[in-house]
Amino acid sequence: MSIKRGVLLVCIVIFLCPVKSYAEKIVVIDPGHGGIFSGTCGYSGNQTGYCEKDANLSVALILQNLLSNSDIDVYLTRTTDTEFSPYLHNKEGESIGGDLEIRINKANEYVQGENDNSIFISIHHNANSTNPFIRGIETYYYDGLNHFNPKWPHDPMQLTYLGDNLRLAQTIHPRLVNFLGLPNRKIHNDESFYVIRNAQMPAVLVELGYMINRNEEKIIKTKEFQQKAAEALAEGIKRYFQAYDVLDNNNQKIATFDEFTSALIFMGLVEESVKIFNKDTQEFVFERPSSEVLSVN
Ligand SMILES: [Zn+2]
Fold first, then answer.
1. Which has the closest alpha carbon to 275: 256, 258, 296, 292?
2. Domain extents in the chain
């Protein structure tokens, strides 16, 4: 049977296949820092008292509001100016009981059992100790395969989301650059930030401009900028979920595609693929009816 004919036959039986509700879509928004941990205070924060933690929280709260009418469940690690622990590292220099550990544990608890259909977005603004003129937007994801550092161990589950991390970064980053009009300082996979390497779900950390830059700090503090940043993130989050997972018999994901037809063609070529899951509607939209139908000569 030709590939074309195989795909056609599969298409014909799609509508006969069972459709089953599966899971929730969840985003955990993490406004970086908070309370005694101010993050960078940028160019003028030491005088004005407005630091990174404040800008991070403002964007996060607008984003929460923008997504409140969507079919995505939204959780925030914090909704007020507060820390999770009085320290980042204990006396032994470990993260146990520290602010970042408690923060990501909280995020992971929100999504327990729904990890594959959840995402984690940590919102930050940037600083640079040597260049006060630096500008632009960066997006980070954890790449534990190519940039593993034994000094910074990760949650084992995070490794399974490497492809999703990249897709999430590639979905969100260009929207941030376009919406905000700041220089594109690219997507990076070579930093092992604690929260993204310990998220039990696909995760990115975004740096929405440099507060150390006098002009950029001024822009970052405006409601207009914060609204646009939240809109870019909301659009990116919604787009991320508009995808199709191809799963094996044990519901393990084999691949993800933006288009249903691409997922279907993949199924025709890869024998162990048996189901297609629509991440947007959170339903199985196709199950392999029989091995004959998909056999390709
Ligand atoms: Zn930060």
1. 256
2. 3-22+244-294, 25-241
Decide: helix, strand or coil at residue 234. Answer: helix
What integer pLDDT is reported at residue 8 of this predicted model?
A: 46
Q: 25-241: what CATH class?
A: alpha beta
Distance 77 CA to ligand 1 centre (A): 14
Q: What is the pLDDT of residue 289?
A: 77
The Cβ-side half-sphere exposure at 39, using a 13 Å CA radius, reads 27
What distance in Å separates the CA atoms of residue 283 and residue 19, rounded to the nearest whole number? Answer: 6
H or E segment and range at residue 207: strand 203-210
Measured in Å, residue 208 CA sits from the centre of ligand 1 at: 10
Beta carbons within 8 Å of 255's beta carbon, 6+ residues apart: 245, 246, 263, 266, 270, 273
Distance 124 CA to ligand 1 centre (A): 4
**Is the model's pLDDT at 21 over the cut of 60?**
no
Closest by CA to 171, choosing from 288, 256, 285, is 256
